[in-house]
Amino acid sequence: MKRKAGKIIFIIFILGFLVIQIYPVIWLFIASIKPSVELASAPFALPSKVTFENFIKVLSDGKIGGYMWNSLKVTGISLILIVALSATAGFAISKFKIRFNRGVYAFFTFGIMVPVQITLIPLFIFYSKMGVLNTSFSMILPQVGFALPLSVMMFVSFYSFVPNELIEASIVDGCSSYRIFGQIVFPLARNTVITIASMYSILIWNDFIFANTFISDSKAKTVAMGLKDYVGAFGNVDWGSTFAAIVISILPPLVIYFLLNKWVTSGMTMGATKG
C-alpha cells in the first residue's frame, strides 16, 4: 500500500513538473496567433480567433531572416571548431603518451571554473583594438573557448573506452596517427559528437551576453539581440510581433533537440554504461 501511494505521489510530482516546463512554451505558441488587442485585454485566455498577422508582420520586414542567418553562421562555424579542436585534443590527451598529458588536461578542465562575465571587458578592449567588433568572429572566439573544456572532457572520457589494442593493431598495419584518428577512432565517437553539437548549438543560438557586449550594428545582430527591436519608444512592446518572432527563433533549436534526442541521451550515458 505504501509503495503504491509513493508511486502515485511520484507520478503526480512528475506530471506537475512537466506542466510547469511545457506550459510557457504552449502559451507562447498560443499568444503568437492571438490578435494584439486580445493580448492586452486577456493575455492568458484562448484566442477568440486564430490569426497569423503577427507572423506576416515579422516576416515582411525582413529583419528576422537576417538575424537568423547571423545566428546560423555563428552557430555553424563555432560547432565545427568546437568538435574539431576538442576531438583532436581529447585524442592526443587520451592516447598519446607525452610528458605533460595530465597538465594539459588539467588546463582544459580549469576553464570550466572561469566565469564568462569576467572576460567581457578584456575581450571588448581586445576586440576594439583589433577592429573586430560587430563581426561574427567576435562571438565565435569566446563561444569556442568556453565550450572546449567540457567538450575535451567528454571526448577524453569516450576515448578511454577505445581499446589501445585497436590502435596498436592499426599502427602495425602501417596506419599513421592521422589515419587512425580520422578513419578508426573519430567515427566511433558519433554519439559524443552529436551530444556536443546539439548541446552547444542550442546554447550558442540563444546566446545573448556575448552578442549584447560585442555587437551594436544591426547587420551583425543575432536572433537573441534582434528580439530587442520589438521594444519601441518609452518601453512600448509590440507583444504580438514579439511572440511571433520568439516562436520563429526557437523553432531551429526545438527541431535539433527532437531529432537528435536519441543520440544525445546515448552520448550522455555512455560513460555510465560501459566499464
UniProtKB/TrEMBL annotation:
It is a multi-pass membrane protein. One of its GO terms (biological process) is transmembrane transport. Its main location: membrane. It is found in: Cell membrane. It holds the Pfam family BPD_transp_1. Belongs to the binding-protein-dependent transport system permease family. This is Inner membrane ABC transporter permease protein YcjP. The gene is ycjP_11.
